[in-house]
Design goal:
Strand content: under 5%
Number of helices: 3
Structural class: mainly alpha
Low-confidence stretches: none
Largest sheet: none
Number of strands: 0
Order of helices and strands: HHH
Radius of gyration: 17 Å
Distance between the termini: 56 Å
Helix content: 40-55%
Shape: globular
Length: 90
């Protein structure tokens, strides 16, 4: 599999990308260079795929990607209740 090396060692590159993805999830936006953003996008998409599965194994894998443990809610919220007038059909 090809990927951008970003002129860093393997451990440094993984730490950089995990930091970028953690910041992206936490702040919903990041400012970085185009190559770093494209590599972080690949990791973020994997994180989103894990969040869609919504099981314990996927949660643990997702928490392994993020640096902040347990404080970021990635999984879908429960569906809204029928409080909205648009949803009441009676």
């Amino acid at each position: 599999m090809k990927y951008r090396h970003l002129s860093r060692s393997s451990a440094h590159r993984q730490a950089l990308l995990r930091n970028l993805v953690t910041s992206l999830v936490k702040n919903e936006a990041i400012h970085t260079t185009w190559p770093k953003a494209k590599e972080a996008q690949r990791l973020a998409e994997k994180l989103i795929t894990l969040a869609k599965r919504d099981n314990e194994t996927a949660r643990r894998k997702a928490q392994g990607i993020l640096f902040v443990r347990g404080s970021i809610y990635l999984y879908p919220h429960p569906p809204p209740q029928n409080d909205s007038p648009m949803l009441n059909l009676t």
